[in-house]
Amino acid sequence: MYPRLTKILILFTIFFVTKNSTAQKWEVGGLLGASNYNGDLAREIVLKETHLAGGIYARYNIGKYFSIKSALSIGTISGNDKNFKENKYRNLSFKSNITEISSNMEFNFRPFGSQVRTENFTPFLSLGIAGFRFNPKAKYNGDIFELHSLHTEGQSNKEMYKLFQLAVPFGLGFKWEINDNLIVGYEFLYRKTFTDYLDDVSKRYPDMAEQKKSYGSVSAALSDRSVEVDGITQPLSTQNDMRGDPGLKDWYMFSLFSFTYRFTPIVCWPNKPPVIWEY
Q1: 200: exposed, middle or buried (C-beta count within 10 Å: 0-12, 13-18, 19+)?
Q2: What is the pTM (predicted TM-score) of this model?
């Protein structure tokens, strides 16, 4: 799935390049900023769960108002019930790296570029498609465990969520042209996903005795972590109690500064006619 998506995004970019090869305006750059998440373990953005993120990209300017940008971005997301008093006894947590390949269309509010009648600053809208890989993990008794392999909600192999998913990135940003070759910018883009398992939490608690028998004691311990809360001596859940909210999909977001180099074509002046001197 992932290699196929990569090929689609590359072909999508080539299409726009070959369509108007006489006016190629290529840019390449780097991204640096932060990543965060919104889901069952964070109903609102928690600033202390923000992590470093970055990436690289290539952008092709179709014209003064439209660009297409293909990017490879990496970041980290995390969540913890300890950040919310109402989730104290559920006591779940996770952390996951995100690796994303995306292709976005950008619409400039002002004519932007180094040509005549263009501006050196513009806000822009961004919308596209992305494929990403994630792998939620949790720390237990000093060790890190991959939650996907533990079937923490009692899922069978056929029911398990996939670690490769699609997302729809969208958001706002701005660009500022320092000179013909250098551009700096900023963008804040949400990613709407189609999974509720970025955090490994979605549906209901399994039967703990059956969970331990089928997937081991660590799986049972990480399915219901209420027993780790002070004053709790045994797990609080019973089978089919709600563990998450399957009606709400998870989101992640990147807040990134961009540093861009524009390849400016070399202009060749036409041959001048010979000068005829008259006396």
Answers
A1: buried
A2: 0.86
Task: Examine residue 229 and state whether it is found in any structural domain, yes or no.
Answer: no
Report the number of distinct structural domains present in the chain: 1
pLDDT beyond 90 at 217 = yes
Query: CA angle, corner 78, sides to 106 and 4, nearest 5?
Result: 50
Contact 176, 120 (CB under 8 A): yes
Q: What is the CATH number of the domain that holds 195?
A: 2.40.160.20
Q: How many residues does the chain have?
A: 279
**176: Cα separation from own chain's centroid:** 23
Give the count of beta carbons closer than 10 Å to the beta carbon of residue 64. 17
> Is the separation of the CB atoms in 258 and 184 below 8 Å?
yes
Q: What is the pLDDT of residue 25?
A: 85
Helix (H, G, I), strand (E, B) or coil at 104: strand
Q: What is the pLDDT of residues 156-190, one digit of tens each?
A: 999 999 999 999 999 999 999 999 899 999 999 99
Beta strand extents in 87-216 (DSSP E only) = 93-108, 121-133, 137-140, 143-146, 164-177, 182-193
For residues 197 and 210, give the distance between their C-alpha atoms in angstroms, rounded to a whole number: 22
The domain containing residue 62 runs over which residues?
A: 2-142+161-202+239-262
SS3 13: helix
* Phi, psi (degrees; rounded to nearest 5) at 205: -75, 140
**What are the two backbone dihedrals, phi and then psi, of residue 220, each rounded to the nearest 5 degrees?**
-65, -40
Tokens 């992932």 belong to 2
